[in-house]
Every structure is written in C-alpha cells, then in structure tokens.
Amino acid sequence: MGLTNHNERRCFLCLDHLPQEQKGILYRGEYLILCNPVPILSSHFTVSHLDHRSQGIEEHIGAFLQLITDLGPTGGFFTTDRNAGLCARPSPFSVARSGQMPIEKEIREGKRLALVKEVDDVLLYRVNNLGRESILVEGSDSMTVERAFKGFLNTLKRFFSLRRTHDQYRWFL
Fold first, then answer.
1. What is the CATH number of domain 1-100?
2. Has this prediction a pTM greater than 0.90?
3. Are 68 and 74 in contact (CB under 8 A)?
4. For helices 142-163 and 57-71, what crossing angle results, to 10°?
5. pLDDT tens, 26-82?
6. Boundaries of CATH 3.30.428 in the chain?
7. How many CA atoms lie within 13 A of 124 on its CB side?
8. 74, containing H or E segment
9. Residue 24 and residue 33 in contact, taking contact as beta carbons nearer than 8 Å
10. What distances in angstroms separate CA 41 from CA 73, 132, 160, one per listed residue?
11. Which residues contact 62 (CB under 8 A, 6 or more apart)?
C-alpha cells in the first residue's frame, strides 16, 4: 500500500475497486463477504457493506448476529474506523472460525466472568483480569441479545454523557 495518505487511498473493499482476482459472496443483498486481504487469523473474512458507509456496532449489531447465526460455529469482531488499518473505508466487520482468537480461551479461564446483569435470558458479564476491559454478552436468541446489547450501550452513553468533561486536548471520564 505504501505510505500514501489514508484519506487519499481508494477503498479496496468497494465493488468498484476490488482487485480483479478478489471474489466475494453476496450476503443478504447488502454485504459482501471477502477473504481478508490482510488476515490476522486463518479463515479470516471481511464483511463489507455494499455502500461505502460506516458499519458501527450500534447500527449493525443485528446484521452481525444474523451473520454469525447463518455461518454456524464462527466468531466475529468489530474494528473501529480508527483501527481499520490499510482499508480506506469505514470499518468492515470480520468473522473467523470460533476458537481462533486467544481472548476466546482467556475469557473462559479461571474466575474471569463476573455476572453483571441478566435481561430476558441474556447474560451480561464483566470479564476480569485480561489486561483490558471486556464484556461478554451471552444468549441463545439473537433478537434478545441485540436488545440487551443496545440497552447496555445506551446505559454507557448516558453514564459517560453525565461524567465527561474536556479541555482543548483531553477528555476526562
């Protein structure tokens, strides 16, 4: 890719700019499943919206959970626009075979899970001692998981909007 400006690069995941040898699978008429051009796991796929737009977790959690359901034993993860790496586009999300990411094993070790709340048969855990803050949302029905997750996000938004202040250069939460 070179050292060109991130904003000047053409999005290599958009249909008009896909490399000729790149093939994809149309998913539900809205997303394209592609082999990740810069994989971090084996069988790592990038799921890119057909339109060049953000795929933030709040707006796309339902489609993400449906994809995981449709693909079977997979795990998925979101990246942020800031961390999308070499891709000059709003954040695609990724899927890979379940069990490949170290955090999947680490979460289940020892006494890391602390139940925070149960809502409609969905369990929300805080994951302790990972060296990073993590949550685990667990449930058997994607619709109830989506509702619980969005409720959690809304609670976080309210919490942070009440407690944040900033000066010109820093945020204090």
1. 3.30.428
2. no
3. yes
4. 160
5. 999 999 998 887 788 888 888 888 887 777 788 888 998 998 888 887 667 765 444
6. 1-100
7. 16
8. strand 74-78
9. yes
10. 15, 20, 34
11. 142, 146
